[in-house]
Amino acid sequence: MLGQMMTLPLTISSVLDFAVRFHGKTEVVSKTVEGPIHRYGYADLAARAKQLAQAMGALGIGPGDIVGTLAWNGYRHVELYYGISGIGAVCHTINPRLFAEQISYIVNHAEDRYIFTDITFVPLLEKLADQLTKVQGFVVMTDRAHMPATTLPNVLCYEELLAGRPTTMEWPALDENAAAALCYTSGTTGRPRGVLYSHRSTVLHAMAINFPDAFGLTARDTVLPVVPMFHVNAWGTAYGAPMVGAKLVLPGPHLDGASLVQLMEEEGVTTTAGVPTVWLNLLAHIEETGRKPSRLSKVVIGGSACPPAMMEAFEKLGIQAVHAWGMTELSPLGVINHPTVGTEMLPEEQRKAIALKQGRPLFGIDIKVVDAAGQELPFDGAGFGTLKVRGHWVCDSYFRQERLATHDEPGWFDTGDVATIDANGFMQIVDRSKDVIKSGGEWISSIDLENIAIAHPAVREAAAIARIDPKWGERPIIVVVLKPGATATPQEIRAFYSGKVAKWCEPDEVLVADSLPHTATGKLLKTELRRIYGRG
Ligand code: ADP
Fold first, then answer.
1. Which atom of ligand 1 is nearest to the CA of 188?
2. What fold does the segment set 354-432 form as a domain?
3. Residue 526 annotated to the active site
4. Exactly one of 79, 176, 329, 506 is catalytic; which is it?
5. What mean pLDDT comes out for the span 129-138?
6. Per-domain residue ranges for the chain?
7. Alpha carbon distance 524, 434 (integer Å)
8. What is the pLDDT of residues 85-110, one digit of tens each?
C-alpha cells in the first residue's frame, strides 16, 4: 500500500521560491570584484536568476546543456547557480586556481557551451580560448562600464544579457534526479574527475548542513562562506542559507585576514566556513590587531585536518571551531564534529581530543572502515583502514568516465582516506592513503606529525612527508614555515617531538622553508613536496 502524501520534486528552484515567499528581504551582500559592496534581498536575487534563465534560452541553452563559471563568491555567481539549474541545465563551477592545462581539459571534457567569467579571469581564458573548442561564447560578469578590452571571441556583457528581460517566470517542472551542477576534483594525483550533482542530492545535502549538529544555520544567522563557490559549491551554503532565511555574505576575491575581519564585522557574520589555510591568515590578523569580528560564533573547518593549535586559538577568542570532513564526491559534507551528551561530560583533555576528530556522520550518510581484505572493522577508535561511504549525496559514478576502483564494492564509495571510527561514531582521518608514511611496515600519520610541529610557538605551517629510505622503505621528514619574525632551529623543532610520539615516528629531519606549495583547494601539495624533498 502506498502512502498518500504529496511528492513534490526536490528541485533547486524550489529553494529559491521558498526564500522569495518567506525571506524575500533577507540580504545577500557581496564585496564585488569591481570594489563596492552590493546588497539586495533573496526576492531580487530570484528576479535576476529568472532574467538569466530567460537569457539562457535566448543563447540556445536548454536542459542538459553544461555552462561553465569561473568566478569568486558573489551575487552574480549565486544567480548562475539558480538560473542555470532552474531551467534544467548544469552549472559547472571551474576552479581558477587549477593549472591552465587542467582547466582546458575540464572545460573540454564537460563540453561547456558557454563560460561565465569574473573580470579577474579574462586574461586566463584569453590564453586558453584557442583550446576550448566546444565553447560558443564567454559572458563577462560585470556591467558595460567595467567590461575589459579582450581578445576573447564572442564576448557578452552579463548585465546587458539580463537587461530588459522579464523578472517573472514559472520555473519548469524538473525531475528531481536531473543533473544540476558539476564539479571536478582537483586531481592532484591524476586527471580531474567530474562529480555530477542532481537537484535531489543538492537539496538533501543543503537540508542536512542546516541540522543543528551540522552548520546549524537559522533565520537569525549571517553566514560568510570563505570556501569558494568553485570548490564543491561553497560546501552547500548558497543553497542552505536561503533554505532557512540566513543572510548570505560573499567576500569576492577579498580573502585576506584584514578584508575578512572587516566584512564580518560590518555585516554581523555569525558563521563562516573554510579550509585551515585561510584561517591561518585570519588568526594572524586578529592576533596582530587584537580585533575579532564581534558576532562571529562558529567557524567550520574542513578540507584538511584542523590542527589542535588552530582549534585552541579560536576557542581562546570565544569562537566555536567545528571540525568537518568531506569531499567533492560527497557534495561535500560527510561528517562534522559536535559533542554528544556523553562526550560533553568528559574531562577537558578527552573532550578536546574528541573535538579534534573529523566528526560523526549526518543522517543521510553512512560510513565504515574496512581492512585490506574488505572486512569492516569495529567502532573501537583504534583499528584503522580504508574509509568507505554511501548516502543520498554521494557520487555513484564519475561524469563521462568508466567505472573506477573507487566504486568496486557495489553501493559504497572508497574515499581513499584512512580512518578510525570510535564507539560514539566519531570518525578520525589518519591520513590520505597516498600521504601516509610507511616505515618498516608500520604506518605513520602525516597529520599527527604536522599537528605537533604546528603546536611549536615558532611554526606557522608544517608538512610531513615520506622520504625514500634504503632501510625502512620510507621515513618521515617535516618541512616547516616559521611565523614572521620567529626563530627556531631545525634541531629545536625536532626535539619538540620527544615524548609526543613513539621514538620511531619522530621525523628524521626538519627542514625550514620560506613557503609550502598548496593545491587549488588550499591543501598542502604533497606530490610536489615529495618531489622536492622526498627522494632521499
Ligand atoms: P581535492 O581532492 O579536489 O582537493 P576535496 O576537497 O574533495 O578535493 O578533498 C577531499 C579530501 O580532503 C578528503 O578525501 C580528505 O583526504 C581531505 N579532507 C577533507 N576534510 C578533511 C579534514 N577535516 N581532515 C583531514 N582531511 C580532510
1. 2
2. Luciferase; domain 3 (2.30.38)
3. no
4. 329
5. 97
6. 12-313, 354-432, 437-533
7. 13
8. 999 999 999 999 999 999 999 999 99
pLDDT at 21: 98
Q: Which atom of ligand 1 is nearest to the CA of 185?
A: 3
Strands 413-421 and 360-361 turn out to be: unpaired
Q: Which residues pair with 257 in a beta bridge?
A: none
| Residues linked to residue 140 through DSSP beta bridges, in sequence order | 117, 157
Report residue 188's pLDDT band, with 50, 70 and 90 as the boundaries: low
Pocket perturbation via mutation, ligand 1, pick of 191, 426, 429, 435 by most ligand atoms within 8 A of CB: 429
Write down the pLDDT at residue 189. Answer: 64
Q: Nine-digit cell at 137? A: 561564447
Residue 418's beta-bridge partner residues?
386, 431
| Ligand 1 pocket check for 328: Cβ under 6 Å | yes
Q: Which of 32, 69, 185, 386 is catalytic?
A: 185
The residue ranges of DSSP E strands in 290-412, in sequence order, are 298-301, 320-326, 333-336, 360-361, 365-370, 385-391
In this predicted structure, what is the pLDDT of residue 403? 85
507 lines ligand 1 (CB under 6 A): no
> Does domain 437-533 fall into CATH 3.30.300.30?
yes
CA-416 nearest atom, ligand 1: 14
CA of 327 to the centre of ligand 1 (A): 5
CA–CA dist 218, 73 (Å, integer): 21
Whether residue 233 has its Cβ less than 6 Å from ligand 1: no
**Lookup: cell for 462:** 608544517
pLDDT tens-place string over residues 287-313: 999 999 999 999 999 999 999 999 999
Q: Give me the chain's average pLDDT, please.
A: 96
Cα(34) to ligand 1 centroid in Å equals 32
Which residues have CB under 8 Å from 389's CB, separation 6+? 330, 334, 365, 366, 367, 412, 413, 415
443 is catalytic: yes
Same fold, 12-313 and 437-533: no
Among 367, 436, 523, the mutation site with the greatest number of ligand 1 atoms within 8 A of its Cβ is: 523
Q: For 478-491, what is the mean pLDDT?
A: 96
Q: What are the two backbone dihedrals, phi and then psi, of residue 387, each rounded to the nearest 5 degrees?
A: -90, 125
Chain center to CA of 493: 31
Q: Is 386 a pocket residue for ligand 1 (Cβ < 6 Å)?
A: no
519 is catalytic: no
Is the per-residue pLDDT at 271 higher than 90?
yes
- 393 belongs to the catalytic site: no
Taking CA atoms only, the protein residue closest to ligand 1 atom 26 is 304
Considering only the top CATH level, what class is 12-313?
A: alpha beta
The answer, yes or no, to whether any atom of ligand 1 lies below 6 A from the CB of 327, is: yes
Nearest CA to ligand 1 atom 11: 327
Confidence of residue 191 (pLDDT cuts 50, 70, 90): confident
Strands 320-326 and 333-336: antiparallel
pTM: 0.96
- Contact between 174 and 11 under an 8 Å Cβ cutoff? The reply is yes
